[in-house]
Specification:
CATH architecture of the largest domain: Roll
Number of domains: 2
Largest sheet: 4 strands, mixed
Distance between the termini: 32 Å
Structural class: alpha/beta
Radius of gyration: 15 Å
CATH superfamily of the largest domain: 2,3-Dihydroxybiphenyl 1,2-Dioxygenase, domain 1
Helix content: 10-25%
Number of strands: 8
CATH topology of the largest domain: 2,3-Dihydroxybiphenyl 1,2-Dioxygenase, domain 1
Number of helices: 2
């Protein structure tokens, strides 16, 4: 069996990105250097921020082709986080919208990675 609990994002400036995610997540990175930062989330998932200038082998940028998704409880929480993230100055590319799976909005991090906050539709 194979399992994954680690996501790597290629970023322009890992220290700046680590600061962005530390404020967004309310967590301190467990590792933080000029080329790499690492967060361990409450779920056990790890979020790595690797310098796109030093990743080996070199990766071609393809921003917008994937998302980090954050599930929250209830539609009101989606709307509240949208307000909070908007006030923090995040670029919002989709305002809270009701979709077939529930309610969601999408923001961008400083490198253009998509951050989706969502709540599942009531059953």
């Amino acid at each position: 069996m194979i399992d994954s609990n680690f996501v790597l994002l290629y970023v322009d400036q890992p220290l700046a990105s680590a600061d962005f995610y530390a404020r967004l997540l309310g967590k301190t990175p467990v590792e933080n250097s000029p080329t790499f930062a690492l967060f361990v989330l409450a779920s056990g998932m790890k979020l790595g921020l690797w310098s796109r200038h030093t990743v080996t082998p070199a990766a071609q940028p393809a921003f917008g082709g994937a998302e980090l998704a954050f599930e929250v409880d209830g539609y009101a929480r989606v709307d509240a986080m949208h307000g909070d993230w908007s006030q923090r100055g995040l670029t919002i590319i989709q305002s809270p919208t009701d979709l077939d799976f529930g309610r969601s909005f999408v923001a961008l991090d400083p490198d253009g990675h998509r951050l989706r906050v969502y709540a599942r539709a009531p059953e």
